[in-house]
Amino acid sequence: MAADTVWALEAHLESCAPCRSHLAASVATEAPDVAALLDTVRAGLEPQLDAAARAPSRRHLTRRVSAWLTPAMAPWLAVIVVVTLMALLLNAVASPTFFGDTSPLLLIAPVLPLCGVAASWSRGLDPAHELTTSAARAGLPLLLRRTTAVLVVVLPGLLVGGWLTGTMAAAQWLLPSLAFTSTALAMGSVVGVTRAATGLLVAWGVLVVVPASATGRVPHALQRVLQPDQLPLWGLLLALGIGAVIARRNAYSTL
């Protein structure tokens, strides 16, 4: 069978008990030599497996964490935290008229998760990228787990930042942030997740952050899109991104 068919079959067998039972019965009746070999291996491994099951293992926790995170993401998540703190500090010390009616934290909140998303599937940053992406359970499920891990780190920090400053309602940035994330994943099925996330980051920086820093005010049109009355448009963008991800779900295993 082709390699991608083997990977899909392995992934299915992990979650389908009836198919595993059917395969085991077929091996026992049609390949007795293989069944005998499996029995020999099982007999040799059982003492070790029993001992491992009785003793708590840190490796088990490490494996569970590695299914959601990659070490390459740690520096990026640290950078996100630092950027959030710097935005909070700027919000506290900057002149009230420097950014107009827009909080500095609000300028970066919609795209902060993209930093972690860009690192979550990066070939250059993850030394185990080839091993990870060739596993049977790689592709969209692993990418979604890593994206969720990024959001779990980023969103609470932004919620706390908005609460501390009192200038950034969650309604203004939460839906845009999720919309940007889903758009990055959708575009990533075509150009690669890292390229898509980086491209959106650069575009937002050029259109919003740089002009705000240079002129002391956010362009009126971009201020407008972050107002609560624009949430239906962000919701539509989020829905379109999710739909594109679902429609192209098979493309992520070949990125």
UniProtKB/TrEMBL annotation:
The chain crosses the membrane at residues 67-90, 102-122, 143-164, 170-193, 200-219, 231-247. Keywords: Membrane, Plasmid, Transmembrane, Transmembrane helix. Coiled coil: none annotated. This is Membrane protein.
